[in-house]
Amino acid sequence: MITITSLTKRYGRLAAVDDVSFTASPGRVTGFLGPNGAGKSTTLRILAGLATATSGSATVLGHRYADLPNPGLEIGVLLDASAQHGGRTGRETLVLAQRTMGLPAARVDESLELVGLTRAESRRRVRDYSLGMRQRLGIATALLGDPRVLVLDEPANGLDPAGIRWMRDLLRGFADDGGTVLLSSHLLAEVEMIADDIVMIGSGRVVAQGPTTDLLAGARTLVRADDVVALGAALAGAGHHVTPSGDAVLTDAGPGTAGRLAFGAGLAVTELRTADGAGLEDMFLELTAATAREAVGSAPIPTGASA
Amino acid sequence: MTTVAATATLRAVVVPRRTAPVPFRRLVGVELRKMFDTRSSFWLLASIGIVALAAVPMVIAFQPTGDITYAMFVNTIGYPWSLMIPMVGLLSVTGEWSQRGGLTTFAFVPRRGRVIGAKAACAAGVVLAAMALCFALSAAGNVAAAAVAGIDPVWDVSAAEHLFLTLFQAIGMAAAFTLAVVLRSSPAALVGYFVFALVVPTLSSMLAGAQEWYGDVAPWVDLTHGQLSLFAGTMTGEQWAQLGTTAVLWLVVPLVLGMRRLLRVEIR
């Protein structure tokens, strides 16, 4: 359980985090989504007691992070997988965490096995690790104390497709066991696939939040026909909202309704599907366009949607 | 009841477990281990050992056999060590920033003062252990050299002087540790320490020679001045007062200000 209440962090006049409030609940994966520089990492650093808030509060299991007597046993934190001393071996990195928390030495091997790092790999210096291996080591460190809350900043970075799949299964399993997972990402497809709840942030402010299914319920249908203008007219004539999208249209009518309307108008439909993959992406771009650093032009910015 | 169900109930609990705070003694153990478990610390340790082992035969080889005394060994090992030993404490602090390990360290122990306190305890322990080793190696070298020359070994360092030499090393360590806390960057703090240990004493004595007024105040403002009087082995009441004044000025004040900043600074 993570509760963020009216959290604000100012650097001089710039509000990196501006009145952010949300909750990450037990048994659910909460995706913290936003473009780079939106304030995700700052929020997570405040949550983990590594930065101080200008105002507002962030609590883990009802307590300020800094007030937890042995935080590693309550909450596993991975904010940056590359922030590990390159001169230590992976195993030594885990041994230090295990000793700090006062855990039995056997936890080190258990964690290595859990994240799929071999014994030989664990004896190499972290400097020689790929980013994917560092992510696995960081996850192992976070899970070492068998916490009930996990906070991960961009955990999919540097992982190959199989690694991303592994990470997804691991987080899903953790949440299904009753754990709380909060992960940040700028990869929309990744979040859409795993998160039960989504908190979307842009320029330090929450722009949308709720269960993923609810946020996606507004997803639209993509219809393509040879005569797009007539198709648009047919859909609009039946009272549906229509947005042109190249040589197709997006509508808030369901696929069945859209298909029947096109059939009624005598139009041959060449493509008909829910715009699922693009749904959240559209919303993401739309919601953050006003506040995003990059001016979002007419051309959609390629994201990780294809991953 | 299956394990899965057990974990489920455990994880679903939304209040913290009743855990004891991480004891200070455990933090000291971890920080001590961190001082010596990286590749760079291995080489630092190795070169400290090589310097000491090279110093003993060098004294025996280059000094006229009749002149060899215990103090020669102590100084030949102790002087290079006064440059090297403080780096152990310095890197232990700056590494948290320069190697970004602090992101993990301070996430496990949010009360940063306890981590730095543990590092300081380790640094003090390193000085004491190093000096014990320095005296032991020197004694062994002295006995060996006397046996080779066929004379009685000369023990010319008093008990008080042993303490002075240890304090000399401790001040070097304290200066390096203070620079590390204030600067929080390995290259900056290392440069700072070498300026303190090598440049300041020379500049200070040159200035004292050229400007009479500075010659009078130097002992009251230059920490290395007091440090070197410890090395000389005699300390008057005034010299203790001067050492105390400069220690407050250059160690206590910067350390307090540096710690205030360190406790609040954002860890990235």
UniProtKB/TrEMBL annotation, chain A:
<keyword id="KW-0067">ATP-binding</keyword>
<protein>
    <submittedName>
        <fullName>ATP-binding cassette domain-containing protein</fullName>
    </submittedName>
</protein>
<keyword id="KW-0547">Nucleotide-binding</keyword>
<feature type="domain" description="ABC transporter">
    <location>
        <begin position="2"/>
        <end position="228"/>
    </location>
</feature>
<dbReference type="InterPro" id="IPR017871">
    <property type="entry name" value="ABC_transporter-like_CS"/>
</dbReference>
<dbReference type="GO" id="GO:0005524">
    <property type="term" value="F:ATP binding"/>
</dbReference>
<dbReference type="Pfam" id="PF00005">
    <property type="entry name" value="ABC_tran"/>
</dbReference>
<keyword id="KW-0813">Transport</keyword>
<comment type="similarity">
    <text>Belongs to the ABC transporter superfamily.</text>
</comment>
<dbReference type="InterPro" id="IPR027417">
    <property type="entry name" value="P-loop_NTPase"/>
</dbReference>
<dbReference type="InterPro" id="IPR003593">
    <property type="entry name" value="AAA+_ATPase"/>
</dbReference>
<dbReference type="InterPro" id="IPR003439">
    <property type="entry name" value="ABC_transporter-like_ATP-bd"/>
</dbReference>
From TrEMBL, chain B:
<feature type="transmembrane region" description="Helical">
    <location>
        <begin position="190"/>
        <end position="210"/>
    </location>
</feature>
<keyword id="KW-0812">Transmembrane</keyword>
<feature type="transmembrane region" description="Helical">
    <location>
        <begin position="121"/>
        <end position="151"/>
    </location>
</feature>
<feature type="transmembrane region" description="Helical">
    <location>
        <begin position="68"/>
        <end position="91"/>
    </location>
</feature>
<keyword id="KW-1133">Transmembrane helix</keyword>
<feature type="transmembrane region" description="Helical">
    <location>
        <begin position="163"/>
        <end position="183"/>
    </location>
</feature>
<keyword id="KW-0472">Membrane</keyword>
<feature type="transmembrane region" description="Helical">
    <location>
        <begin position="240"/>
        <end position="259"/>
    </location>
</feature>
<protein>
    <submittedName>
        <fullName>ABC transporter permease</fullName>
    </submittedName>
</protein>
<feature type="transmembrane region" description="Helical">
    <location>
        <begin position="42"/>
        <end position="62"/>
    </location>
</feature>
